[in-house]
Amino acid sequence: MTRKRILVTGGAGFLGSFLCERLLAEGHDVLCVDNFFTGSRDNVLHLLDDPRFELLRHDVTFPLYVEIDEIFNLACPASPIHYQFDPVQTVKTNVHGAINMLGLAKRTRARIFQASTSEVYGDPMVHPQPETYRGSVNPVGPRACYDEGKRCAETLFFDYHRQYGVDIRVARIFNTYGPRMHSNDGRVVSNFIVQALRGDPVTLYGDGSQTRSFCYVEDLIEGIVRLMQSRDATGPINLGNPAEFTIRQLAELVIEMTGSSSRIEYRPLPQDDPLQRKPDIARAQAELGWQPRIALREGIARTIAHFEAALRGTPAQSAP
Ligand code: NAD
Ligand code: UDP
Ligand code: UDP
Questions:
Q1: Most CB within 10 Å of its CB: which of 141, 213, 283, 303?
Q2: Burial of 93 by CB count in 10 Å (0-12 exposed, 13-18 middle, 19+ buried)?
Q3: Exposed, middle or buried: residue 180 (CB in 10 Å: 0-12, 13-18, 19+)?
Q4: Which atom of ligand 2 is closest in space to residue 63's alpha carbon?
Q5: 20 alpha carbon – ligand 1 mean position (Å)
């Protein structure tokens, strides 16, 4: 395989750090660009000694002039509490960030991957969600900075593709979890595990009947890499695990698997919180030969092990 110079934006985040690791393992040079808003040096500390790895503090809303062969655009906070902290910056990251990275791809003729999201489907009226479903998004609600920002980024990707022939790959990623999520990340899997391990109440928003479909990080990274390596699959293509659970089932599973004495504490359901979500992955199966392999119970066990170590202060393992 040819050795490539690969840029990963958001590379010091949860998914980005696993992707950097995978690309280095394949023998590529990796330039990790991150403004450390939700990511951190700690996530890539174990890669810093590798001469093929370079870490650059940079905000993708500003132009970036580097010479590269491939781009993975992952920069964007993914947890509702973080992307709603500074919604204007979230829109800028999605829109200006996409324009800058597409401009870079256009100039260098680099193939470019976009980490889009199941949130483009909003609170879906069609279940499970195929890529052909156009979504049900509130454009003026508190989640819009993320949902509409990601939708606009998809538009930009397809316009740069049609107008300038940029070689694009767009994945719609469904809820993904695993080791190296931050304990204050705010997303449901890390919240529940950390709360259960500490013996704190497990915070269930709403009545817990809303559903999500959880994909383990290792499976997701495999899907991203296959999409990037495929000959001509531009996407958009759903990547996620179609096994669907209610959030209450997740809370009960985490309490059981941690052996915790935590009780469930009910909190109000946030505005515009989607009631159901499950990917239709027929396209990923047909075009990439991809489907997830790691079941929720196994992935949660690995994630619990990570947080147990992190809460004890032992360095987190570098691989899932
Ligand atoms: P994360 O918050 O751990 O990682 C995002 C990274 O982007 C962080 O390191 C952050 O510091 C960086 N970043 C944010 N704004 C930036 C900016 N303006 N310039 C440079 N860096 C910036 O989240 P994650 O779960 O690793 O998500 C990575 C990508 O995948 C995001 O684009 C997210 O929208 C997408 N995604 C994730 C999921 C999921 O379930 N994990 C689902 C759908 C889509
Ligand atoms: N850009 C960048 N790096 C590059 C090339 C472009 O960051 O190597 C940014 C630059 O800020 C530009 C944006 O990408 O405004 C869009 O580039 P494009 O060529 O599409 O537009 P233009 O330069 O005409 O505004
Ligand atoms: N959630 C919850 N308790 C928490 C965090 C989240 O019940 O401590 C719920 C949240 O309301 C949503 C689901 O879990 O219905 C998934 O939330 P997350 O923020 O992980 O992802 P997203 O809503 O973006 O899918």
A1: 303
A2: buried
A3: buried
A4: 7
A5: 13
- Dist. CA 189–CA 78, nearest whole Å: 13
Which ligand is closest in space to the CA of residue 186? Answer: 3
Place of tokens 């174990």: 46
**Tell me, what's the pLDDT at 314?**
65
Q: Does 146 participate in catalysis according to the annotation? A: yes
Q: Distances in Å between the alpha carbon of 251 and those of 191, 248, 260?
A: 10, 5, 11
- From the CA of 292, how far away is ligand 3's center (Å)? 21
Pocket test for ligand 2, best of 104, 108, 168 (most atoms within 8 A of CB): 104
For the record, the structure tokens of 255 come out as: 């309490």
**Whole-angstrom distance, CA of residue 89 vs CA of residue 161:** 25
Compute the distance between CA of residue 11 and CA of residue 64 in angstroms, rounded to an integer.
15
Complex ipTM: 0.98
What sign does the dihedral 156-119-186-219 (CA atoms) show? negative
